[in-house]
Amino acid sequence: MTNDTLMDHSDNPVTVSIARRAKAGKEKLYEDWLHNISEVATKFPGHQGVHILKPSAKTGGEYVLIVGFSSYAHQKEWEESDVRQRFLDELEEKDLVEGPADIKKISGLEFWFTLPEVPAHARPNQHKMALVLLVVVFFIIYATHLVAGAWLATLEPALRIALMVFVQVLLMTYVIMPNVTRLFKAWLFK
Length: 190
Prior knowledge:
The protein is an alpha+beta fold. The protein contains seven helices and four strands; from the N terminus they run αβαββααβααα. It has a four-stranded antiparallel β-sheet.
């Protein structure tokens, strides 16, 4: 997604993934660097979390740093900060990585429709994303009510809704949407 496209959705959360391959023998130093920059990023306005994926078959042997911000403006503030630049300078000085970083920025619904094997510029049609999300959300809520509806009914409304949202977001982010996106990849990215 280009910065121009992100500006069109400037109030939407922005997730940035940065994939890099550590040089052989420098993996521990690079992991330390990742943890240090992540800790500093958490102190920036709008920061919504950070995840570090270690090299695996799914990441193509690269480390992937995933950072979320509540808006494009907050993400841009971090991206243009002096402290981030110092970390990038340190990365270069210590010669910890091979080649350039593969950086992807996504905003809004696109977060749930990303796959490592799909090019960063590929975006599903918004109508298709909305349709898939409507179906997935319906079935998660329906299944939650079938499985735990009686128990949920005993809770205060705010707690009941908070639990349902918590379960729904976790299931969608880590279990359902990666599989649904792979299943419908040809149709979504047509």
